[in-house]
Amino acid sequence: MTATETKTTTTNGRTDGANGVHQIGRSVPRIDALDKVTGRAQYTADLHLPGTCYGAFLRSPHAHARVVSIDTSEAERMPGVVAVISAASIARDLAIVVEEEMHAARRVLSLFPNVGGKVTYHGQKIAAVAAATKELAEEACERIKVEYEVLPPVIDVREAVKEGAPLVHDETKPVDGLDHGPFAAPTLFNIAGQNHRNEGDVDAGFREADRIFEDTYVIPRAHQTYIEPQSTVADVARDGSVTVWTSTQGHFAVRSNLANSLRIPLSKINVIGMTIGGGFGAKFGGIVDTYCVLLAQKARRPVKIIYTREEEFLDAKPAPGAVITVKTGVKEDGTITARQAWALWDTGVGSGGCYATNRVKGVYKIEHFKVDAYDVHTNKPAPGAYRAPGAPQATFAGETQLNRICAAMGWDPVEFRLKNMREGDQIAFKETLQAVADRAGWAKRQSKTGPNEGWGVAVGEWTNGAGPASAVVSVHEDGKVHVFYGLMDLTGTDTAMAQIAAEVLGVRYEDVTVSRGDTNSAPFGTASGGSVVTFSFGNAVKRAAEDAKKRLLELAADHLEVAVEDLELANGRVSVKGNDESLVTVAQLGQMALRSKGGPIVGHGSFASEPSATTTAAQIVKVSFDPDTGQVRLRKLYGSLDVGKALNPMACEGQMEGGLVQGFAWGLMEQMRYAEDGRNWNPGLLDYRVPTTLDFPDIESVMVEMPTKNGPFGVKGIGEPPIAPGVACLVSAVADATGVWINEVPLTPERVLHAIKANGKK
Amino acid sequence: MRDFEYLAPRSIGEAVALLQQHGAKARCLAGGTDLVLMMTDKIATPAYVIDIKHIPELNVFEWDPTGGLTIGAAVPFRILERSDVVQRHYPGMAESAGEVGSWQIRNLATPGGNLCTASPSAEIAPILWALDAQVTIAGPNGSRRIPVQQFVTGVRRTALEPEELLVDIRVPPPGERAGSHYIKLKERQKMDIAFVGVAAAVELEPGDGVIREAKIALGAVAPTPIRVPKAEATLRGQRLTDERLEEAGREAADAAKPITDVRASAEYRKEMVHVLTKRAIRQAVAIATQH
C-alpha cells in the first residue's frame, strides 16, 4: 500500500527528480487555453463554407400519436428551399435498392416516422429542410402539413410496466415478471431490456440479518447541458464522398455510424472533429450528423445544422431517470449480510441503463447480492451516456440507504464504510474515504454544526474503460516534439499527452505541440468517453515517445561513440552517464537524423486494451436549510479521488470539481420534466436549472495516488467517478439537518418543505 | 429572427412620430434582453425596431429630495443597483434591481423595459407598486402621468397605446423614517426567475416604533403585481408585534392568486407569500428604525 495524499494546492513549479525536471505531476496550463480564451478555437458553428445552406427540423408536438399524413409539397415549392427530407422522400430515394439491401436500408428508413407509423415522443423529428437561411428552413418546416391521431402517452415507468399501459412501440412483447419485489406481476409491459444478477443467496443473507431496511429512490432524467449544442456541417462531393465537420467525442465513431446508417463506404467518409464545447457522453453522433449528411446529399451543397437549446432538451440523449428499490440486511455488529435491488430505468423510446443497477452494491464486502432491473419504454427520447452512466442514480440509492441505516443504528457513516469496504490490489477505497474525512474534519463535525445544518458523506466507484489508440511522435530539427493522433480532447487530455511525451523524451512540456488529424489522416483512436483517454492514448503516446527515444539514443550513441546503455536523456540533451562534458542536444540529434541512415525521428505507438483498477470518489458536504421555505444551501464541500497518478494536478482537480458539481446539481435542482400529456415541460435553461458558481461554496479536493499497473505512469481514468456520490451525499446531509429522508430528487425548496411538514404531522 | 428595420430617433417627438407611422408593426428597444429573445423565438415579429436609447429624456437618472427619483426608460438596472441614492433612500429597489439576471444582463436591461414587458414575475414591479411610483408616457397629444399600478393591465399587457412611449418612472421621496425591502424566492442564488416576489415599504412615526404607513406588494402570484391593502391596514398605526406580522402575512397569502406551473405549486407559492411578507416587513421596519 503506497497511497500518498498530495496537496491539491497546485504549484506551477516543477519537481526535480533524478532524471532532471519532471514534466508529469506539473500543473501546467492547458495547451489550448490561449486559443479558447481569445476566441480563436474553431467550433463547428464558426465554420462558414461557401454556398452553405442551413438545416432545420419539423418536430412532433405530441408525445404519442399516429401519423395520418405528411404533406411536404408547399415547403418544397418555397424559393430558397434546397432539400426536404422525410420518410417518404427517403423511401423514394431508396427505390432502386434491390431486395437484399433492404435489411441494411432499414436504419436509414427508421430516421423519420412513416405515414401510418407513430411518433413516440414530443419533439421527435418528422422531416428536415435545408434552405438558404436558417429562418427560411424554419419557415418551410412550419409549412409542412402533418395530421396526427393523438394517442395516450405513458410517462412514468411504474405505470408503463403495468398491463393496460399504452405500448410505446407496438411491437414490444410482454415479458415474464417477478414474483417478488415492488413491481411483482406475472407480466411486465414496455420492457426494453433486462439485467438479472445473483451472487450468493440473498434470502439466506437476509435471514442472518438483525435488521432489514427497504427504501425506494426516485431520480429524474438529467440533461448533460454542455455549453455547445449538437452541431454539424456536411458536404458531399460529386463522387459521393462525404466530409463532415462536427462537435463530437469520437470522430471515428461518427464515421462508422454514418457508414452503417447511411450505407456509405467507410473510405468515402472523412470526419473532422472540431473543437468541442462539452459532451459528457452525449456527443457520439447520430443526433444531427446523419440528417445533415442526408440533406447535403440531396442539396448538393454544404449543409449546416446547429441545434437550439430547446432542441437539446426535446431531442438529444439525456441521462435516464430511475426508480430503484434497495433492501439491505445488517447485523448489530455492523456487517452487511445481504443486499437486493429492483429497478425500473426510464429509457424512453430506447434502452440502456439497467446494467448500472449492479453499482448499488458499491465498494463493500457483500456476499449475497441480487439485482432485477429493467429498461422501460416511455414516451420520451432515448437516453444516452452522461458521465459515469448510471452511477449517480445507482449510487444515490445504494449510498443514501447506507447512511439511513447508519442513522437508524447509531453508527458513524465513515467508520461503517471503512469496516465494510473491500480491499485489494491497486485499489484504495479506504484511503480515499479516510483522506476526505480527514480533510473535512469529519470526526469533529458535531462541534461545527449549527441549527438547521447537517453533514453527509457518500462514496462512488468507477473503473475506466480502455480502447484502441495510436499516436505518432516526431522530434524535429529544432529539438521540439510533435504528437499527432486522432484524439478528441474534451477535458485537457492534449495537455496530458504533451506532458507524457515531454517526460519520456526529456524535454519541457512547453516544447511539445499536439495536433489532431481527421479520420482520413490520423491513425485510429477510440472515442473520448468512459474515462478511457489518458489511460489508452496515454499508453499509445508513451509507447510512441519511447520509440522516438530509442532512435534518439541510437543516434546519440553513434555520435558520442558510447553504448546506448551509458546514455541518459534529460533536460533536452543526451549525455554520457557520469560525464557532463560529453553531450549532444535533442535539437542536434533532430538535425543529424535528417542526414542519418534511418531518416527523421518518428516514433509510433499503439495500444488496444488492458484492464484498469477501480477508483473511488468520496465526498462530504455540509448543508443548511431554511425551515420556512425549504431552501437548501451547500456550505462546505470536500471531495477525494484516487487518481492513480496525477499527470497534471490542476487538471485532475478540474475533473474532480466538475464532476462533483454535476452530481450535486442533479440532487439539488436538475430535472427534465414531462407534463401529463407527455410534452416536455421545461425545454430550456430558464426552467431546467443548472447551478451557477454562487450556488456552490469553494470545493476542497484531495487526491490519493494508488497507481494501476497498466496505466501510463500508474494513471487511472478519472473523468467519471466524481459525479457518482453527489446525489446521495446531498440527500443524506439534508436528512441529517432535517431529520427527514427524502428519497426523491431534486431537493427543490417545495419538495423539502413538503417533506418536513409531512414529517411534522406524523 | 425575421428581418426588420432599425430606427434610432433622437427625441421623444421623433420616436412618437415613428410610432404613429408604424403602429403595431413597431417595437421599442431598450436593453433588448426581452425583445431580442422574443424576436428570436418569433413571439414578436416587428417590422420596425425603434431604439430609444438615444433620446436624452429617457436617459435621465436624477434624485431630488422633494421631487424624488426619476428613472429614464433607457436607464439600466445596474445603475439603480449601484446608486448610492437608491441604496440609501430605496434599499428595496436596490435589492430588486440586483436580482435581475447577471451583471451583463443588468448592464443592458432596464426597469422601463421590465415594466413594458409586463411579465407577472417582473423583478422591478413589486417595489415600484409598494413605493407608489408613477410613470410618464409620451404620445401624439403630449405626455401623461399615471400610477404604475395602472400601467400594467394584464399578462404582457400595458396601458400604452400603440403610438405611445414610456419616458420615465418617478418614485416619490421616502418619508423621514422610511425603509423598504424586497425578497425574491427562487431556486438558484442568482440568474433565476421569481417564484414569488414580495416588496414592503414602511414609514415610522417620528421617535417611536409606530408604523405610520405600510405598503406591501406581491409579484408572480397574480396576472399583474398586486398590493395588499388589508395587510397594510393591519399594520398602519400599530407597533410591529409577532401577532400583527402573522396577521399581515396571512392576509397577503389570502390576497395572492397564484397558479401551479412547472416552477411551483399554487399552494407553495401562497405559503411562501406568507413567510416572505413577514420577512420583508420585518426587514423594512428594521431599516426604518435605523433612521
What would a concise description of this structure say?
Chain A has 762 residues and is of the alpha+beta class. Chain A contains 19 helices and 31 strands.
What does this structure look like?
The complex is a heterodimer of chains A (762) and B (291). In chain A, 28% of the residues lie in helices and 25% in strands. Chain A folds into four domains: 1-7 and 423-464 and 612-762, Aldehyde oxidase/xanthine dehydrogenase, molybdopterin binding domain (Aldehyde Oxidoreductase, domain 4), CATH 3.30.365; 46-61 and 64-151 and 225-314, Aldehyde Oxidoreductase, domain 4, CATH 3.30.365; 153-223 and 318-412, 2-Layer Sandwich (Aldehyde Oxidoreductase, domain 4); 466-607, Aldehyde Oxidoreductase, domain 4. In chain A, a hairpin with a 2-residue loop joins strand 25 (567-570) and strand 26 (573-576). With 762 residues, chain A is an alpha+beta fold. In chain A, the strands form eight sheets. Chain A has a seven-stranded mixed β-sheet with strand order 6-8-4-17-14-15-16, sandwiched between helices. Chain B folds into three domains: 5-51, Uridine Diphospho-n-acetylenolpyruvylglucosamine Reductase, domain 2 (2-Layer Sandwich), CATH 3.30.43; 56-171, Uridine Diphospho-n-acetylenolpyruvylglucosamine Reductase, domain 3, CATH 3.30.465.10; 178-290, CO dehydrogenase flavoprotein, C-terminal domain (Enolase-like, domain 1, 2-Layer Sandwich). Helix content of chain B is 36%, strand content 25%. Chain B is built from twelve helices and 14 strands. In chain B, the strands form four sheets. Chain B has a five-stranded antiparallel β-sheet. A four-stranded antiparallel β-sheet of chain B has the order 11-12-13-14. The chains are: A alpha+beta (762), B alpha+beta (291). Chains A and B meet through helix 19 of A and helix 12 of B.
